[in-house]
Amino acid sequence: MTTILEQLFYSAPGQVVAGKLGLPEPEVLRRGRVGPAGPVATATLAGSSLGTDTVAILGVDTIAALVDDGDELPAYPQRLGALVVDARGLQQLSELEQLRAVLRPAVKGLQPSGRIIILADDQVRGIEAHAVRQALDGINRTVGKELRHGATTNLVYVSADAEPNDLTSTLSFLLQGRSAFVDGQSWTVRSSAAAPPISERPLADKIVVVTGAARGIGAQIATVAARDGARVVCVDVPAGGESLAALTNQLGGTALQLDITAADAGERIAAHVASRYGEQARIHGMVHNAGITRDKLLVNTDAARWASVIEVNLAAQLRMNDALLDGRPGGLADDGRLVSIASTSGIAGNRGQANYAASKAGVVGLVRALAPELAGRGITVNAVAPGFIETEMTAKIPFVQREVFRRTNSLGQGGNPIDVAETIGYFLDPASAGVSGQVIRVCGQNLVGA
Ligand SMILES: NC(=O)c1ccc[n+]([C@@H]2O[C@H](COP(=O)([O-])OP(=O)(O)OC[C@H]3O[C@@H](n4cnc5c(N)ncnc54)[C@H](O)[C@@H]3O)[C@@H](O)[C@H]2O)c1
């Protein structure tokens, strides 16, 4: 049932009010496994050709980037799908001008849902080079706020020894509609001997377990993993059994009714995998998605409300990881993927969510601590931190607050569960072997914690 305010907002007078408040109609974002809608311009600023070489592997049409040299601003002959700027090697403040000069014509010439992707050095030496490295982040965040019509910008820090193979899954994700709601973010990609070539079905025959899969974001994660070839194991509480069964039938996976707070939840997941897929079977991807909110101001939060959120959102994950990482049949494979869901609330804090923010910030801590520990086994550990995503969880937020959350990001809209699922698909990809210990916000560059 819609509220009076909703009726007002979506009625003709409501639209006028929205217009008066300066709230534009949000752009329909280009989503899915589709490449850029126009040519990709590439720019090499300080001698590194990694960006251009990687784009060449992806088989997309490229052109040389135009440069603003102070005369009339050069214009691209047709609207650009993307600009990939290789800014690795920029060391001096004066060299930042080179970035401005390629960004200006591209920002003006981008398609709706176009992309700007900036590559930078992960490790630099010297004070000025560090200042330059950080300046790139400031530029990226600002351009994200200035781009219009669903276009995004992101910054990827790359280790010095990375090869094109290490970057293909990242650039392919960023260029495609899969990254529609990832904007103004930065993360790091390192070299990895284990990165295979990218593929349209990167998870073919691999087992991916998703907790909280009966609805919302979890159901989309399972759907995207199945689209990418995975055999999915969908886990949810017995109360979600009917929709869990319907989803697994549709995806051709298996369902496991399980409350993840059970002390032996990890053991039961491994036993399910071993009994359904064979003693030799191992999990490729474990996605810790199940989560709850029990919002109250801290002053009104009792011990039970506190404990339930920490238990589901964090403690259960720690226990399940322990069991799945001990080498048992049906546990996590070496070269496997652990993926968790954090939240922008865990990064910025959020009034009325001390328990939730604690649990989600804890997830970020878990990822950062576990990633280096498991690197020797080829296992990557990453998290997605969603902003406002349209699900049953966020439908419970009062309308005015919900509309504010929805609109206060650079893309002027809420994200869809598939946006979170696609980013998790990027982490699950075997070609993302060099991406570990990272937290990517899927928030349309939400102002919260920006
Ligand atoms: N929706 C958003 O805007 C948003 C934003 C940030 C983070 N998140 C996170 O994304 C994840 C999914 O959120 P959603 O919006 O799809 O939520 P949702 O409430 O729609 O779905 C959560 C699912 O988890 C299951 N679940 C809860 N407790 C469980 C338990 N003990 N054992 C097994 N399953 C359990 C529920 O039954 C449900 O199917 C959560 O971790 C949430 O905190 C969501």
What does this structure look like?
This protein is α/β, with parallel strands linked by helices. It has two domains: 40-189, NAD(P)-binding Rossmann-like Domain (Rossmann fold); 207-442, 3-Layer(aba) Sandwich (Rossmann fold). Helices cover 40% and strands 18% of the residues. It contains 15 helices and 13 strands. It has helices at residues 4-10, 12-20, 50-58, 96-109, 127-146, 164-175, 216-227, 241-251, 265-277, 303-324, 344-348, 354-374, 392-395, 399-407, 417-428, and strands spanning 40-44, 62-64, 80-86, 110-121, 152-158, 185-189, 207-211, 231-236, 254-257, 283-288, 332-341, 380-386, 439-442. Strands 9-8-7-10-11-12-13 form a seven-stranded parallel β-sheet, sandwiched between helices. The longest helix has 22 residues, at 303-324. 50% of the residues are buried. Residues 1-11 have low confidence and may be disordered. The structure holds nicotinamide-adenine-dinucleotide (NAD). Residues 211-212, 214-218, 236-237, 240, 259-261, 289-292, 312, 341, 343, 386, 388-389, 391-394 line the site of nicotinamide-adenine-dinucleotide.
Write the layout of secondary structure elements.
Layout: H1 4-10, H2 12-20, E1 40-44, H3 50-58, E2 62-64, E3 80-86, H4 96-109, E4 110-121, H5 127-146, E5 152-158, H6 164-175, E6 185-189, E7 207-211, H7 216-227, E8 231-236, H8 241-251, E9 254-257, H9 265-277, E10 283-288, H10 303-324, E11 332-341, H11 344-348, H12 354-374, E12 380-386, H13 392-395, H14 399-407, H15 417-428, E13 439-442
Parallel strand pairs: 1-2, 1-3, 3-4, 4-5, 5-6, 7-8, 7-10, 8-9, 10-11, 11-12, 12-13
Helix pairs in contact: 1-2, 3-6, 7-15, 9-10, 10-12
The protein binds nicotinamide-adenine-dinucleotide.
Nicotinamide-adenine-dinucleotide (NAD) is lined by residues 211-212, 214-218, 236-237, 240, 259-261, 289-292, 312, 341, 343, 386, 388-389, 391-394.
